[in-house]
From TrEMBL:
SMART domains: PCRF. Belongs to the prokaryotic/mitochondrial release factor family. Gene3D superfamilies: 3.30.160.20, 3.30.70.1660, 6.10.140.1950. Residues 70-187 form the Peptide chain release factor domain. It is found in: Cytoplasm. Residues 297-316 are annotated as: Disordered. This is Peptide chain release factor domain-containing protein. One of its GO terms (biological process) is mitochondrial translational termination. The lineage of its organism: Eukaryota, Fungi, Fungi incertae sedis, Mucoromycota, Mortierellomycotina.
Amino acid sequence: MLNKMKPKLQSMQELHDKLLKEINGQSAEVEDLSPTKFAEKTKQLHDLSQITDRYGEVESLIRDLYSLQQMLEDPATNQDQDLLEMTQEEIKSTTEDIIEKEKELLLSMLPTDTADEANAILEIRAGTGGDEAGLFAADVLRMYERFAERQRWKWDEIAKTHDGLGAIKDATIAITGHNVFGQLKFESGVHRVQRVPATETQGRIHTSTITVAIMPQPTDVQVHIADSDVRVDVFRASGSGGQKVNTTDSAIRLTHLPTGIVVAIQDERSNQKNRAKAFTILRAKLFDLEREKLANERRDKRRAQVGSGSRSEKIRTYNYPQNRVTDHRINKTLHELESVLDGESLPEFIQALRVEEQTDMLMAMNDEE
C-alpha cells in the first residue's frame, strides 16, 4: 500500500521543505509573512512534519534492511556463524520495525476530525418497551456518568424527564473535558436490552430499546444562529401531571425555522439559564446536522465507515441472562455486563470501534490512490 502512496508522500515532503524555507525567510518567492500567515504556515508545517518525519524513518529503515540483505549475500558473512546469526536477527528486527513504522505513517496520513477534541452533548431517550425502556435508559445514563468520572470529565445535567420510579423518559447532558466527542462519538444509535423485568411473574425475557445521541458541542463561531431564524416561546414550567413547579414564565421553547428543530428547557427557575441551555443544545443539533450531511456526502463517494451512525441503527445489545454485551457493528462480545455498565469495560468497545474506523479509512484511502 505504501508503494502506491509514494508519489503523494514525496509531494508532501516537497511542500514541507518549501514551507520550511518560507518560514525561515530563505525563499525568494515570498515577501515578509504577516503574523496570521506565519501562524497558518507554521501549523501546516507542524502537521506535515508528523508525516514526513515518519516517512524519513521508514526510508532509513528500508535502506538499513537493504544493506543487511547485501551482507547476508556476502560469502564472508556465511563463513562466520556468529556474524550470520547476528545479521539474520537484525534483518528480522528491522523488518518488524518497518512494519510498525509504516503503520504509524499510514495512521498519521488519515484525515483528522477536529470535532474529536470538542465537548459533547449526550441525549438519551427511552424507546420501545414501556417502563423497562425507561429503567434501562437510567442504567445507560449511569454507565456514561461513571465513564465520565473515570475520565475526569465534567458532567452537567441540562434536562431530565422522569418516567416512573427509577425510570427516565429522556435526559440531556453536557460533558466537558479532553477529547470527549472523540471518545463517545461511536455511542450514537439504538441500544437494546434483554432481561427479565422485576414485575415479570413468568420469568420471560423482555426486549426494550433506548436511543443515544452524541453531538459535538460547537463554539458560537462555528455555528451562528440568526435571530430571524429562531422563534422563542416563553411559558410556565410544570411537572408531571400538570403539577406547577414554577410560578413564573421561565420555561423556554426554541423553534429553528429553517430546519424545524425544537428545543424546550424548563429545568431552571431562571428564564435566562433555560434560554442559555436551550441555545447550547440547538447549536449542537445544528452542528451535528451539518456534520451528518457532510458525512453522507463522503459516504456516497466511498464505502461506509463503522456503521452508518444513524440513530435508528441497532448498535449494541445488553443481555442480562447471558451476562453478555455485543456490539453488532464490529461483532465484538464481552461477557462482562456489570463491568460495562459500570463504565469500566466500555473503553474496550470504544478502542475496537476506533481501530475499525481507522482500518476502513486506510482501505478507502488505498482505493482512492
